[in-house]
């Protein structure tokens, strides 16, 4: 990698993007906070944040053609990172309070309520990630990351049997039941936790992503 890489942080109205912007800048990226379609398509990396309700995030994404930006980038092998609800909307659907909302459909499956006695899952937790992970390279196995959510993808339904592509690397956390904490799937990465709020280990993860751009 030569030169500073440009990351577009998609500002579609879902939460405060400034902490993510600062974290990416500390990771060495030049960050543009925008919803401009062509700028988002052409950037070295695209970060899709997300907080709040699944359906509200999807409404915001569609309003700026964010779902199309994600799909177009991935079709061309261009990196995308989804964070928190920005990860959840990558799945086929989200089910909240019995209401089904259509997601971006990059991965099969549904995001559902965690079967835990106390929600949200808020605070620090460890992650079981694979040894060959690029996302977690150089990060200790007992590192703790910051979560705040009540819903998650609790199964992985993408079938890679017979595919020439590298199998996705999956990381899991347990809160009431196992759920997907992070996914590395070619150019598409996503985390249920907030790396921008996870201190030094979150900063290391973002540096790992920026290094792939």
Q: Could you characterize the architecture of this molecule?
A:
With 213 residues, the protein is α/β, with parallel strands linked by helices. The protein has helices at 18-26, 37-42, 54-63, 66-75, 85-88, 199-211; strands spanning 6-10, 30-34, 45-48, 80-83, 91-96, 99-102, 107-113, 121-126, 144-149, 151-153, 169-174, 178-185, 188-191. The longest helix has 13 residues, at 199-211. It is globular.
Low-confidence stretches: none
Share in helix: 10-25%
> Which structural category fits the helices and strands?
alpha/beta
Q: What is the average per-residue confidence, as pLDDT, rounded to a whole number?
A: 95
User: What portion of residues belong to β-strands?
Assistant: 25-35%
* Run of helices and strands: EHEHEHHEHEEEEEEEEEH
Strands, total number: 13
Order of the strands making up the biggest sheet: 2-1-3-4-13-12-11
Distance between the amino and carboxyl termini: 8 Å
The radius of gyration computed from the alpha-carbon positions, rounded to a whole number of angstroms, is: 16 Å
Work out the helix count.
6
Characterize the overall form. globular
Biggest sheet details:
7 strands, mixed
């Amino acid at each position: 990698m030569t030169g500073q890489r440009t990351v577009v942080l998609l500002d579609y109205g879902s939460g405060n993007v400034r902490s993510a912007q600062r974290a990416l800048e500390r990771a060495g990226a030049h960050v543009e906070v925008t919803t401009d379609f062509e700028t988002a398509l052409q950037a070295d990396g695209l970060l899709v944040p997300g907080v709040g309700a699944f359906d509200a995030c999807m409404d915001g994404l569609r309003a700026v053609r964010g779902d199309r930006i994600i799909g177009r980038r991935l079709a061309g092998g261009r990196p995308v990172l989804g964070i928190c609800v920005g990860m959840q909307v990558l799945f086929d659907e989200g089910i909240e309070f019995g209401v089904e909302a259509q997601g971006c459909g990059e991965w099969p499956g549904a995001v559902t309520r965690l079967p835990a006695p106390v929600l949200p899952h808020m605070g620090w937790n460890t992650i079981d990630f694979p040894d060959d992970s690029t996302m977690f390279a150089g990060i200790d196995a007992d590192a703790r990351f910051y979560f705040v959510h009540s819903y998650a993808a609790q199964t992985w339904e993408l079938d890679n049997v017979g595919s020439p592509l590298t199998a996705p690397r999956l990381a899991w956390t347990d809160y009431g039941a196992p759920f997907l904490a992070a996914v590395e799937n070619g150019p598409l990465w996503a985390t249920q936790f907030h790396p921008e709020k996870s201190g030094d280990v979150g900063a290391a993860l973002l540096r790992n992503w920026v290094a792939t751009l």
